[in-house]
Amino acid sequence: MDILVGIDTGKTVGIACIDFKGRLLAHLHKRFAGMESIVSDIMMVGTPVIVAADKPVPSELIKKINAAFNARLYAPDYEFSAREKRAASKNEDISDIHERDAYFAAMKAYHAFENKLKQAERIAMKSGVTNVDDIKAKVLRKYSISEAIAGREANRR
To answer: Which has the closest alpha carbon to 54: 78, 30, 31, 19?
Structure first.
């Protein structure tokens, strides 16, 4: 299953995984977690197409995790306040601040691509594609919608 994952790094690492509709699939936190442990935990849920940071400058650990999955890296344009992060996660049962920040990162990435995902779904459905999530994953990997549906290689980097 392809997913979007948000990661909050530090002494305690927060991880939140969401699907292509923005639904929370899993969240957890670990103290002093290494890259291998984080990658393993993420793989238990799915394969990230996007790895998201909650800060404008992603940490080296997030960059390495992103590279391990050959995913697209997302970082917001500016740093958000704790209040904004709390408000964004109020409808989910997330009590740990690291998990909350990771969820916030994943949701910011989702919202950045939400319109494109909805467009891809609409066009894929009209084209009779059965696995719409595959098309969405390709679109997030920078394929055009028509390239994704036709099964062609992306014409860009």
So the answer is: 78
How far is the C-alpha of 58 from the C-alpha of 7, rounded, in Å? 9
Residues of the domain holding 8: 2-113
Distances 97 to 7, 44, 54, 82, 93 between C-alpha atoms, Å = 12, 22, 12, 9, 12
Query: For residue 11, what is the domain's CATH number?
Result: 3.30.420.140
Inside any domain, residue 62 = yes
Q: What is the pLDDT of residues 48-69, one digit of tens each?
A: 999 999 999 999 999 999 999 9
pLDDT higher than 90, residue 151: no
Inside any domain, residue 120: no
Instruction: Please tell me the pTM assigned to this model.
Output: 0.94
Please answer whether residues 14 and 8 qualify as being in contact, where contact means their C-beta atoms are separated by less than 8 angstroms: yes
Please compute the mean of the pLDDT values over residues 129-133 and round it to a whole number. 93
- How many structural domains comprise the chain? 1
Burial (Cβ within 10 Å: 0-12, 13-18, ≥19) of residue 56: exposed
Residue 154 has pLDDT above 70, yes or no: no
In a domain, 50, yes or no: yes
143 domain residue, yes or no: no
